[in-house]
What does this fold into?
Amino acid sequence: MTPLKRLVAPLISRLVITAVSLVLVVSLLIATFATIALRETLVNRLDRDVHDMARSVAGPRPGSNVNIGPDSVIAVFPENGPAQGNLGDFVPTQVESLTPADLEALADVPVDARPHGVDLPDHGPYRVIAQSGNLPDGDQGVVVTGRSTNEVDNTIESLVFWEALLTLLGVLAAAGAGYVVVRRQLSPLREVAATAHTVAALPLSSGEVSVTERVPDRLTDEDTEVGQVGAALNSLLDHVETSLAERHRSEQQVRQFVADASHELRTPLTTIRGYTELAQQRPEAVPTALGKVEEETLRMTALVEDLLLLARLDQGRPLARDPVDLTRLLLEAV
It folds into this structure.
């Protein structure tokens, strides 16, 4: 058995692993849904800010004193003229200007006055709105405004970190608590197993054996799984004890039967031996000796037939049924 199989083989290990797995799955599901819900909420709030920013920029005098903060972006794409944009203010000369790569990415935003996500190559991800309107110089064009998603991303990253940390701590706590609880709940099974091991160590092969070990009554409540096992083991031990007692009684009967049969066979054998010696010493007594030998032989035959009958009864074999002359039986009995 490999070390991994040896580790998960005990029931307590499998129960703890199952419980910890459920805790882990539930924690991951909760963390995933919480992260998705929070990100959706933060993005919606960010989109509202982007809408407010777009309305302020698209007012009667777009660009006048519009300070939208360092995490915002504004870019204009006039119909007649080069595109320009900056971070933090509408006035390009006072803040950081957008690079051509950033302007190219913003130029691909659909002009539908709806928030979209865009990744600026030099400044990261933003939520932006593109809308057509009048530019500060009176020209027509497209104005793209938006705000960085760094704050949202940082919040989500912080949330994921704490979720991972709390999930890990929860799994460790569940493993420790589950091990203690499951080990305590399975302690009755160890008592049942100890009873079985004690009985298994008894010499049951021969002789009179008394199986007195039993599972305690408090562990035989059949309303519980452990109680069902304990009650079943006690029933098994009762049956084993009864069978052993019956076997011992049968062995005693066999011994007694063998002793009685030996005694009964010894008498005719002694008689046959005596008359045989008499016939050898006195030839005139041969007819008498042969008659006695025949009589004792018939007696031994009857004893052997009785032995065979008892053997059949002991084996449970069906008895042979033959007609019997009751008159002769009565005469022999009298």
Notes: The first helix runs from residue 3 to 8. The two ends are 77 Å apart (CA to CA). Helices lie at 3-8, 11-57, 100-107, 150-185, 187-200, 225-281, 286-315, 326-333. The chain has a mean pLDDT of 79.
